[in-house]
């Protein structure tokens, strides 16, 4: 018996860098509403920080493993 498997993956383009993973970052405004996710969140946060305008936002980096061991319940 023979069969073939096709795997598709999204490629994230970060300027000159190409990856199949996005950065685990998220950026929220002062009202805790999502602004950006992934490398776009990282870029935006660093842009705000360079102008000292980052104090009214929430930026989280590499949080995925902190969520890994938490139990998720839909109830």
Using brief descriptors, characterize the structure shown:
single chain; 75 residues; three-stranded antiparallel beta sheet; 23% helix
Structure description:
The chain has 75 residues and is α+β, with helices and mostly antiparallel strands. It has a domain of 45 residues. Helix content is 23%, strand content 24%. It is built from 2 helices and 5 strands, in the order ββββαβα. The strands form 2 sheets. Strands 4-3-5 form a 3-stranded antiparallel sheet. It has a two-stranded antiparallel ribbon with strand order 1-2. A hairpin with a 2-residue loop joins β1 and β2. The longest helix is centred in the middle third of the chain and has 12 residues.
| Average of pLDDT | 78
Tally of contiguous helical segments: 2
The percent range for helix content is: 10-25%
Strand content: 15-25%
Query: Which class of secondary structure composition applies to the elements?
Result: alpha+beta
How many beta-strand runs?
5
The oligomeric state is single chain
Radius of gyration: 17 Å
Shape: elongated
Strands of the widest sheet, in order across it, are: 4-3-5
What's the story with the biggest beta sheet?
3 strands, antiparallel
**What is the string of helix and strand elements?**
EEEEHEH
The rounded distance between the terminal residues' Cα atoms is 44 Å
Low-confidence stretches: none
């Amino acid at each position: 018996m023979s069969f073939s498997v096709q795997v598709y993956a999204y490629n994230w383009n970060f300027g000159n860098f190409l990856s199949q993973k996005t950065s685990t970052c998220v950026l929220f405004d002062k009202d805790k509403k999502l602004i950006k996710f992934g490398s776009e969140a990282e870029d935006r946060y660093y842009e705000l920080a360079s102008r000292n305008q980052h104090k009214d936002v929430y930026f989280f980096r590499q949080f995925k493993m902190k969520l890994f061991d938490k139990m998720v319940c839909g109830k």
